[in-house]
Amino acid sequence: MIKKKFSNFIDNLQKDITSSLEIIDGKEKFKSEHWNREKGGGGLTMVIENGDVFEKGGVNVSKVHGQLPDSMSKMLKVTNSEFFACGISIVIHPKNPMVPTFHANLRYFELYEKDELKDSWFGGGLDLTPYYLFENDVIHFHKTCKNTCDNYDSNFYEDYKKKCDNYFWNSHRNEARGVGGVFFDYCRENKLMTNERWLSFIKEMGQCIKTSYLPIVEKRKNMPFNESNINWQHIRRGRYVEFNLLHDKGTLFGLKTNGRIESILISMPPKVKWEYNHLPEKDSEENSLLKILQFPKDWA
Amino acid sequence: MIKKKFSNFIDNLQKDITSSLEIIDGKEKFKSEHWNREKGGGGLTMVIENGDVFEKGGVNVSKVHGQLPDSMSKMLKVTNSEFFACGISIVIHPKNPMVPTFHANLRYFELYEKDELKDSWFGGGLDLTPYYLFENDVIHFHKTCKNTCDNYDSNFYEDYKKKCDNYFWNSHRNEARGVGGVFFDYCRENKLMTNERWLSFIKEMGQCIKTSYLPIVEKRKNMPFNESNINWQHIRRGRYVEFNLLHDKGTLFGLKTNGRIESILISMPPKVKWEYNHLPEKDSEENSLLKILQFPKDWA
Known about the structure:
By secondary structure, chain A is α+β, with helices and mostly antiparallel strands.
């Protein structure tokens, strides 16, 4: 049963990722909080704060079910439906500005009418938001995603990379949130991909979270940085906040459907700055990043 | 001509308020930036940053006109219309957590069909967002607003106070952004209030900005504070960001209609924090504030 298998998988992935991150951090441990959803289901929120490497990080598992909320019924063009949704979502805000912020989620959704399964699909993705651009890191990140995709379909990476660039676009700033990654949704059973094969793809993507991101953290976590680097990191985190509160469908959906606020907004960066019309100097590293964010490029 | 008179009034008010704030600050001066709107009009953005009293403050005047944007045509249920809109908006984020954040705006809108004036109205309001509650300050603020309202109509204050509480409601947190003030919109000519009388009301509201807020700043700006007060201020500023990006119609309208980003987001606080599930201690001053924000009360 796909639902059970996926559900076990995300539980194990949460344990696996949080313990890997704790080892890298060396100082702080994750705190766990179980929560229940009034209308069905609940979750386990795990959070690390004020670590030596991770200033703030959240690894959430949620498994919710019940009557499909109105807003979603409209979107999916169904009536009187029930749903089951479960997923893992990860946001990591490192302390050192040379280490990029990381986001990933993997999710599975089932739709029922009168207790009968009517539809189901997988979704998810991973993406990277650097403050300083180390091209080799970005290439490594994208290539790791691409290799995983290529194990299943040679078109996946190109398709999902484009979807990611389109989704994480801060339209009011005319720039990308970060350097992208992959993003996929409505992955339904079809001739080429059975649900079991999708599950296997999703599981590999789960491993890809570790192989794509953790080596970058290890490589950059001890690099020197100064106050001006921190200032830039805090300003760029402002753009992250703007994206999440203005554009991110997951965040807005969660808030509109009375999701658990603190688990949803765990994605907010720990310290953020807004300066009026901050513009980096013309030939600076900061400005090179901005140029890249304005025109998403091919990395893999 | 109302338009011309209001337009002059906000120019003078901008000068008046910025110079009053500069005197109080004693260190920093406002920087001015003229900007043009591609499709008609422009504005003057004035900003103060890193002052001794004001960590960040913006006083914006904008005067824009042209074809009515689609989203607004829908809202106002008109087609093929032109508009003229001008206003002043003020957001002040003081450094000392004992001094509340302040927001105000005053605006005038005209709607045309085939060069003929079809409709016009005033709007605006002022509201206070404290980090620590000094009841006398809040009473002074509300009473000053009430006195100004009472000069025109004995029902205005009650009505506009309620509108303010309703508008500045962070629904996803189930709490008010601050302790309110007054908020009014679609103030059209009627039997009791001619446009000239509305203009006079608006002008008094402009003076009220100074008489309601500045004495509070003077009274609190030199109060001692510690790191823990600053931490609380930064966390509460996070709620301010959440309101402005999730709920504030003005901000969202500006962003959707390609307004000048930096002038719109001048309202963002300078330094902000998000901690996971931050809860103040039960009998703390911080917790007293939260209780007040959950149930807006009568102050005047």
